[in-house]
Amino acid sequence: MADEVTLLDFWASPFGMRVKIALAEKGVKYEYSEQDLRDKSALLLQMNPVYKKIPVLVHRGKPVIHDLSRKIWTTKGEEMEEAKKGFFECLELLEGELGEKPYFGGETLGYVDIAFLPFCCGFSTYETIGNFSIEAQCPKIIAWANRCLQKESVAKSLAEPGKVHELVLEIRKSLGFD
């Protein structure tokens, strides 16, 4: 499997360290690719063209997570349909891990919740641009997000969905999608 999973990272990145821990805990073998942040590699720029940052987890030649959300608002037609499929596969996997628990770790807000919550700020934007409903396909994820947003610490820390939407529209325009 190491030939299928690659981590593009910088040795001191706390975000990359999280990924390494998660991969180790899950027993996933991977190839590590150290990145020079002052001279970004062609692979890093190809795998994360919007943010151009590490870490990037690559599975079978495709970036994970950032790619799933980014492709919804940077593609059209059949490519967007494929992006939506991948996006929902990821959400369904997370929904399976959540199960009937209030939070990913159980009864209290934990690390996985904190790591995943920032992506929820873009849900309404993805739905609008992709013309789909996350709640229709992954109701437990939306219920979880709403539960988390009831916590003051979460509500005060996350970006406003409206501002995220405006930013995405600006980026789409700069990329020639609108």
UniProtKB/TrEMBL annotation:
Q: Which GO terms describe its molecular function?
A: glutathione transferase activity
Catalyzed reactions per annotation: RX + glutathione = an S-substituted glutathione + a halide anion + H(+)
Source organism superkingdom = Eukaryota
Which residues, if any, are the signal sequence?
Answer: none
- Its Enzyme Commission number? 2.5.1.18
Q: Name one GO biological process term.
A: glutathione metabolic process
Gene3D superfamilies named in the record: 1.20.1050.10, Glutaredoxin
- Return the CDD domains for the record: GST_C_Tau (cd03185)
Q: Does the keyword 4Fe-4S apply?
A: no
Q: Where is the GST C-terminal domain?
A: 37-175
Q: Which SUPFAM superfamilies match?
A: GST C-terminal domain-like, Thioredoxin-like
Q: Provide the family line.
A: Belongs to the GST superfamily.
- PANTHER family per the record? GLUTATHIONE S-TRANSFERASE U19, GLUTATHIONE S-TRANSFERASE, GST, SUPERFAMILY, GST DOMAIN CONTAINING
From the Swiss-Prot or TrEMBL record, give the protein name: glutathione transferase
